Amino acid sequence: MKQGNHPVFADQTWLARLIWLALMGVAGWALVQWRLELAFVSLATLAVSLLPVVVARWADIHVPPSFIAAVVLFVGGTLFLGEVYDFYERVWWWDMGMHGSSAVAFGLIGFVLVFILFQGDRYAAPHLAMSALGFCFAVTIGTGWEIFEFAMDQLFGFNMQKSGLMDTMGDLIVNLIGAFVGSTVGYAYLRGQARGGVAAIIDEFVRSNPRFFKRIRRK
Question: Are 109 and 138 in contact (CB under 8 A)?
């Protein structure tokens, strides 16, 4: 059954729903206390984390709930915990973990988008070329995020870039590594060598959206 026939949040995980409710609660409390910066960050985090669900419903695409939950965790960890509770300074690996995990995810998204262009025909182009396009997509998104951090710092006085150039270059390097990991999973999937784990998300997406993969052939 198509996602467009379901309520927006009907098939989402309890974890994603809990985080959304928590963000709404924090935003309401912040407004009552007139802590406008906290309210802004909470509402911005909520809006960004809801965006994939809204876009998926608009495009009538089924996105695995586990992937939506991962997006919500990332956005919450980056914008809310990272900025409001200063996890970037308190937890030494927080910045690296956030950027690395997101790069892997965007590598997978890029691969899936390329796979859709070929309607699921894994033999329509060299496997290396298809995974390389996914890699380029993830690197582009990672670069865009660094521009976003710069804009937030300049426009709203945040400190998302921390140490400036060193932080930005470190994030870009981690993004590069994560994008490589994500696109490598896509490459292994094309060759029929990836089953379970992260590759299971690709399988679920393919099974749930057959209209995008009319030429799919499995080994």
Answer: yes
Among residues 15, 70, 80, which one has the least CA distance to residue 46? 80
Contacts of 110 (CB under 8 A, 6+ apart): 133, 134, 135, 136, 137, 138, 141, 179, 182, 183, 186
Contact between 15 and 34 under an 8 Å Cβ cutoff? The reply is no
pTM: 0.72
Cα–Cα distances in angstroms (integers) from residue 25 to residues 55, 70, 73, in the given order: 24, 21, 17
Q: Where are the domains of the chain?
A: 1-62, 86-219
Report yes or no: 17 and 25 within 8 Å, Cβ to Cβ.
Answer: no
128-170 pLDDT per residue, tens: 988 898 899 889 988 998 898 888 888 877 777 777 788 888 8
User: What percent of the chain is predicted at pLDDT more than 70?
Assistant: 92
Tokens of 19: 């985080």
Structure tokens at 28: 């309401």
Q: How far apart are CA 59 and CA 61, in angstroms?
A: 5
Helical H segments across the chain, by residue range: 14-32, 36-58, 65-75, 87-90, 94-117, 127-156, 165-190, 199-208
- Cβ burial of 68 (10 Å; 0-12, 13-18, 19+) is buried
| Residue environment code for 101-124, b if the CB has 16+ CB neighbours within 10 A, otherwise e | bbbbbbbbbbbbebbbeeebebee
